Amino acid sequence: MLALPRSARVVSKATGRDNEAYSGFQGTDLAAQMKALKCARVIVGGLATDYCVRATALDARSLGLAVFILDDAVRAVNIQAGDGERAMREMIFAGVRLCTADEAAA
What we know:
This protein is an alpha/beta fold. The protein contains four helices and three strands. The protein has helices at residues 30-36, 49-62, 83-93, 101-105, and strands spanning 41-47, 66-75, 97-99. The chain starts with 29 loop residues before the first helix and ends with a helix.
């Protein structure tokens, strides 16, 4: 179970029936909320490395944010063999850093 502090804000994407979104920034006010809070970094975990994690991380980098991927808290779909590894290489090339959940918590 994911334990969130009371101060946590949950941002939902693709909430409409005909709404699709891979990035947590797509169709949400996440960028505006982060700017208002003067956030400088994003820590990303979840599914799927080759879709939503990738899109969110790359969007965050395009906004100038430092991005950390929780290497032990992501998983790829791998429709094509190696999709997850290719997505990781693309994110790393864009400046995303990898860390573990324990390292991020420290």
